[in-house]
Specification:
Vcp-like ATPase, Chain A, domain 2; 15 strands; alpha/beta; 242 residues; Rossmann fold; 34% strand; four-stranded antiparallel β-sheet; seven-stranded mixed β-sheet
Length: 242
Amino acid sequence: MRLLFVHGDREYLLEPGAEFGTDLGVIDVPENVEPGDTVETHLGEEFAVREPRGPDLFDHFERTGAPMMPRDIGLVVGHTGASRGDRVLDAGTGTGVLAAYLGRVGASVVSYERDPEFADVARENMALAGVEDTVEIRTGDLTEELDSLVDGEEFDLLTLDTEDAPTAVERAPDLLVSGGFLAVYSPFVEGTRAAHEAAEEAGLTEVETFETIQRRMDFGDRGSRPSTAGVGHTGYLLFARN
């Protein structure tokens, strides 16, 4: 498993036994390195060794598009109670950040990605996150597999990040256990409105939609206020329950 080597604002994910050159010198990673250790470069610069956490993986995953932000994933976990032992059906894998987070909290995830190249990258990212045994990345379109899935096992959570999410939302009552949750992410209000209407028409309960905004705070001698750097909007999240 790769570990995180940190010096100030520099971070590198490296495997035991690796040799890696930086402007602070060469890091010669010991085979028996463990989190909590300190490793010096040949120039004497110290790097702290850490076990990578979710936000670290978000920063170091290979990207195939704009991934869901950690704050959005936190809302998904918080609103649905996703936890160890849950069975999750996911569509729109992309980079695989959401699938990896869910796998790391102990859920068993089946995630669909249409693009074969994106799916291959996501599988590599799952291995980097250490969840390749609990997160299965399938190449394909979830909407084309719905008939076979509704005849199989039921899921505790259905997560969607696709343009055709309303099509899957319509079948959510057949896919989810009683009391199971639906979570739909959309970058555009039109997409989340269509999913919201589909959830209501499907007879799901507790249907609610949120815009996700996070504002960084600035603290100075003159006073404290939200940063003027930007609004911090990422997208829209719909939640519903079977």
